[in-house]
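# nightly structure sweep
# worker-07 picked up a monomer target from the shared queue
# config: single-sequence mode, recycle default, output format = C-alpha cells
# input follows
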Amino acid sequence: MKTSRAFQMRFVWALLLFCPLGASGQDLKPVPLPRPQTNIGRPLMQTLKDRRSTRSFSPKKLPAQEMSNLLWAAFGVNRPDSDKRTAPSAMNWQETAIYVATAEGVYIYDAKANELNPILREDVRALTGTQAFVKDAPVDLVYVADLAKTGHGSAERDMFVAADAGFIAQNVYLFCASEGLATVVRGSIDRPALAKTLRLRPDQKIILAQTVGYPRE
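# output follows
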C-alpha cells in the first residue's frame, strides 16, 4: 500500500515531537514541512487591526502545517522561479537565518527546501530571552544575521540587517494576528550565552527573538 507524502511528513514530525533528544543535532535528518497554505488568512486591514504583542502563551505545540505556514509567512520563497522572499532584504543579501527553538531542539528554517534542518538536540528556549514565558512557549524564533553575506564595507550595514530582521518579525506579527496566534518580538537576550550555545561564528549576530504560540486561555 502506498503512503502519501503528507502522511510521511506528519509521521516524521510526530517522531521529532515525541522522541527524546540528546546533545547534538548532527545525527538528525532534515524535517520536510507541508506545503504552505497560501490561500488562507483574513483581510489585511482586519489583521492590522488585531496585530498586538502578547506575553502569555499556552504550552500547546504548533502542528506541522501551522509551523510551515508561519515560517513561509516570515521569510519564505514567494516566487518559485527565483529566490525572492516574503520579506525584503537589503542588497538582496538574505543574510537573516531563522533559528527555531522548541522543546525538542533547535532547527534552522531552509526556505528553499521548505524544511527544518536540526542543529542542536537541546531545549534552549530559556536562553532566547530574559522573560520567564520564553521557556514554556512552544516556539521561539531567533533571527541571526550572517554578516559574511553582507557588504563589509557598507557604513549602513548594521541598520540594514536590523531592518531586515524587523521586516520578518512584522510578517510573523501579521500571520499570527490573522491565524489567532500569540506573539511578541524581543530584544532582551543574553546574546553571548545564546551565541555560544548555538555555536555561532563571530560574524553571525543575534538581532532579535520572537515568541510564537497559542494564547493562554
